[in-house]
Amino acid sequence: MKILLPDGVNLGADPVAEILKQYHTIGVVGLSSNPSRPSFGVSGYMQSAGYRIIPVNPNETEVLGEKSYARLEDVPEKVEIVDIFRRTTEVPAAVDSAIRVGAKVAWMQLGIEHPQAAAKARAAGLIVIADACMLIEHKRRLQALTS
């Protein structure tokens, strides 16, 4: 896991725990309605943990009971975390969208890293998490998050 904080941002000893405490609206780029896809399992878990999940996938109309949007820019409410379930080559476009919508965090799932896009997001003031599974990180901190 890699964590990049914008200049002047200090989230304490555990930035991931602070992110998961502070932000609760997650736009999931690449969320699939296929239950066997990791995006579906992770998003379902986060939804059951009380987070607002907003599917962002032009090939879906609804996922996990939520309306799906073709682009982050089409979402009519504030997205705080952009969780990216896309190929590495598609990360820069997702990061550009996250910057445009004023997200606070760009989160690249386990196995996904893009140093140039991460640097761009950080320079734009976003916190960046790369190569980390939100479900795993949430479970690791469950006691701290619920107390």
Description of the molecule:
This protein is an alpha/beta fold. The protein has a single domain, classed as NAD(P)-binding Rossmann-like Domain (Rossmann fold), CATH 3.40.50.720. The chain has six helices and eight strands, in the order βαβαββββαβαβαα. Helix 4 links the parallel strand 7 and strand 8. The chain starts with a strand and ends with a helix. The model has no long low-confidence stretch (mean pLDDT 95).
Low-confidence stretches: none
CATH superfamily: NAD(P)-binding Rossmann-like Domain
Structural class: alpha/beta
How many β-strands, per DSSP? 8
Query: Major β-sheet, in short?
Result: 6 strands, mixed
Order of helices and strands: EHEHEEEEHEHEHH
Just name the CATH architecture: 3-Layer(aba) Sandwich
Cα distance, first to last residue? Answer: 25 Å
* Number of structurally distinct domains: 1
Helix count, DSSP H or I runs of 4 or more residues: 6
Task: Report the principal-axis shape.
Answer: globular
The strand order across the widest sheet is 1-8-7-6-2-3
